[in-house]
Amino acid sequence: MKVVSIIAAALASSSATIAAIVPVQPRDVADGFYQVVTDDAGNTRTEFKAFDFGSAKTSPNEARVLEKRAEACGSPVNAGEVDQANECLINSFFGNNVYLRKNQWTYCVRGKVVSFICPYSDGDKSKNNISGAWGYVRGKCGSNKAGYSQVLYGNGDWTAGYAPNDGISFCTAGFHA
Ligand SMILES: *[C@@H]1O[C@H](CO)[C@@H](O)[C@H](O)[C@H]1NC(C)=O
Questions:
Q1: pTM value surpassing 0.90
Q2: Mutate which of 129, 137, 149, 155 to test ligand 1's pocket (most atoms within 8 Å of Cβ)?
Q3: Exposure pattern of 1-40 as b/e (b: 16+ CB <10 Å)?
């Protein structure tokens, strides 16, 4: 019993230490790739993968054909961080297509920006078409404004965009980095 209570006390103090270093402000969220996954029991958790921003090639997204989409513009963002967050997100997938399940919100944090892909149904889209959505937002909102738009083509009802990483919700009400 004594041993158990010592272990319990040690655990309690180590978790207190951990709690103290866990970032509490949304802007302290670590840079990198995050993905919401749902297990067979229906429980969701968010997985994290570091991303090497040093080796990310930056290819500015170009605005493409304007078409009617579900879209909106938002708050100011830094264009360089937007490019890096988008590169993190798209380069964290292998191959030319991205496959996601419904509600599998996937995002990258880079500094004060969060870039996201929101699948509202199971599907797959080409990386070109996801980058096309980001490029469309840039053309529509300006290079220093957040926004999102529908991802055209491929299968599924998805949006993609980027926002300030300041606790703002994206993909669905109440969800944030
Ligand atoms: C959509 O993706 C396909 C396949 O990569 C590509 O050929 C096409 O140019 C893309 N269209 C847009 C508007 O992004």
A1: no
A2: 129
A3: eeeeeeeeeeeeeeeeeeeeeeeeebeebebbbbbbeeee
